[in-house]
UniProtKB/TrEMBL annotation:
Keyword Transmembrane recorded: yes
Transmembrane segments: 521-543, 549-569
EC assignment: 3.1.3.64
Organism: Rhinopithecus roxellana (Golden snub-nosed monkey)
Pfam families the record matches: Syja_N (PF02383)
Taxonomic placement: Eukaryota, Metazoa, Chordata, Craniata, Vertebrata
Enzyme class label: hydrolase
GO cellular component: endoplasmic reticulum membrane; endoplasmic reticulum-plasma membrane contact site; Golgi membrane
Keyword list, A-Z: Membrane, Transmembrane, Transmembrane helix
Source organism, top-level taxon: Eukaryota
UniProt name for this protein: Phosphatidylinositol-3-phosphatase SAC1
Catalytic reaction list: a 1,2-diacyl-sn-glycero-3-phospho-(1D-myo-inositol-3-phosphate) + H2O = a 1,2-diacyl-sn-glycero-3-phospho-(1D-myo-inositol) + phosphate; a 1,2-diacyl-sn-glycero-3-phospho-(1D-myo-inositol 4-phosphate) + H2O = a 1,2-diacyl-sn-glycero-3-phospho-(1D-myo-inositol) + phosphate
GO terms under biological process: phosphatidylinositol biosynthetic process; phosphatidylinositol dephosphorylation
GO molecular function terms listed in the Swiss-Prot or TrEMBL record: phosphatidylinositol-3-phosphate phosphatase activity; phosphatidylinositol-4-phosphate phosphatase activity
Amino acid sequence: MATAAYEQLKLHMTPEKFYVEACDDGADDVLTIDRVSTEVTLAVKKDVPPSAVTRPIFGILGTIHLVAGNYLIVITKKTKVGEFFNHVIWKATDFDVLSYKKTMLHLTDIQLQDNKTFLAMLNHVLNVDGFYFSTTYDLTHTLQRLSNTSPEFQEMSLLERADQRFVWNGHLLRELSAQPEVHRFALPVLHGFITMHSCSINGKYFDWILISRRSCFRAGVRYYVRGIDSEGHAANFVETEQIVHYNGSKASFVQTRGSIPVFWSQRPNLKYKPLPQISKVANHMDGFQRHFDSQVIIYGKQVIINLINQKGSEKPLEQTFATMVSSLGSGMMRYIAFDFHKECKNMRWDRLSILLDQVAEMQDELSYFLVDSAGQVVANQEGVFRSNCMDCLDRTNVIQSLLARRSLQAQLQRLGVLHVGQKLEEQDEFEKIYKNAWADNANACAKQYAGTGALKTDFTRTGKRTHLGLIMDGWNSMIRYYKNNFSDGFRQDSIDLFLGNYSVDELESHSPLSVPRDWKFLALPVIMVVAFSMCIICLLMAGDTWTETLAYVLFWGVASIGTFFIILYNGKDFVDAPRLVQKEKID
């Protein structure tokens, strides 16, 4: 069993040091952080000065260096998600960012403003829902990966053994990582979604758990992070595991999602759907092969389900993906293109059964992981479905929920929960839990990547597409449009700072935050608003003749519309672009 992290902590603060006291039974350790030298050492309880200011905390997220110096980030509130094989799982719901420095007098006005902006970025990430942790259980690995480990691995601390793809505070913990003696104070934190439910079918009680682990490699926001990087990491990569626990037996079914693994971009430019651009110069096969080599090593066989449109602006991406799979010629990969929007047009979502029937035999071959009450592995999952659409959100989540239900049907029958011939769809109480959980999963993944809740969740929750659902999709689409164009640069910068893709250097002669805006960014929107307002005023305050009024309306109307089209034509000058890390541009 992994060495547990400390669960009960107290933070003692003096002007010179932070003292983090372990309050678990029998513990005498105190983590000491020097606020001047930044040195981290291990002490004992008697070393804590009685004059220190004391408060309870629930974990150390890590440390980060900003313009004003170092900051300590701690978890100040948590809520219990549930229990996982007698391990408590928590959601971190509030944090505090504490400065090592006692004063900011050493900073210039520009440095003060930059530091304030960096703090706002940190708090933005911390305010995005979905940070989970356990002090006794390794949340970063699937059941199958945990079952296939060495005794040495099982004795490691949670931080040492964690899958680094899913440790969102890995960069923040780098100083503690370098000192094994303080690892019990270091808490690996997952970002994504976790829900747990105690369920009953036929009077038989079982636990049903859904976990989505969001990768911190190539992490970012919708339009600024697409495709793959040179290491083969895909944008918006999420590993989703569905777990059943019944009478000591445990079953698991794992799926993945991730952006189309070639070099492409879709930079916002004020258009509702920017045109995807596929690189003409990048070595697509190199990145593509790196991606799937790692996927095969981790998960086994890959059944790729590509749900994007097979016509219009998405068509070149589908063709490129199909060509890459064919060129690689791997027997470990199967490729299925299913035009979701075409097949389900006119709200014919029953046609998703076409895809399920097409992959049914493949799903049976992939199987699922099952371990009996004696701890013996009965079945292994031999591979995963890797699903994607353009964003890997809405269409992807619908398909994943249907595939997961089919696997769950087989698992519950094998465990004896379902009788022969019984269907999960007929279990009304469980179906409600199941559908709502998958819809909540969709919303969590969408908010973390696109900034709004998911689309199409009416189908996930009810099994039907509704007119109200279409209206809600329109509303969410409008919010996405605004955020993607006017606030995603800040969101992307926030993630890059949090994950360590950008490191603050207070000695930089030129701050990346002081990039001046083009004059058009300020002038043209003002002109458009003024012209449109004058047009409305002219209509409300009609002149002596309709001819005069019409002339004024036409003048200001043409001015406002003309300015709007100038803004649209120069869209890239008006979007909120990242400033800390230059995102690759695809030519």
